[in-house]
Fold this protein.
Amino acid sequence: MKFLILSILSALLLSASDISQQVRILEKVVSEISLGEEIKIWSDDKNIIRQLNRYSKFEITTDCKDATCIILKDKKNLPKVCENTHIFVLDYKLLSKIPQSFGALFWKKGRPNIVILEPRIKAQRVIISKNLMPYLEERVW
């Protein structure tokens, strides 16, 4: 019984740690882009919103219509009225499924990966800093 409780607590701590790391990376990426206006974030991931509300310098909005940047975990959670907002996805496959998304943060082999699609940031007039240049790709693979 003691082992089961320790296993559950370890799993919860690792999960919380992964979310914290994901949020730190997202905050760094978002701080390195310019959308031509103040960045207001909306996400369909409640854990990310909770973390950003606690520790982020960015304004968080509860309505995607007010957002200038959407962080999206699942395509089915994207309201139609918000499809033309700047979208950063949390799954590489979503880059193909959501052609208006400009970048992704995803985990592969236990490591975080960032991809930013150069043609899409140009089309959407998203300006990135030199720090994000190594993550530029020409297309979705």
Summary: The helical segments are 2-31, 46-55, 92-97, 118-123. The chain has one domain: 2-137.
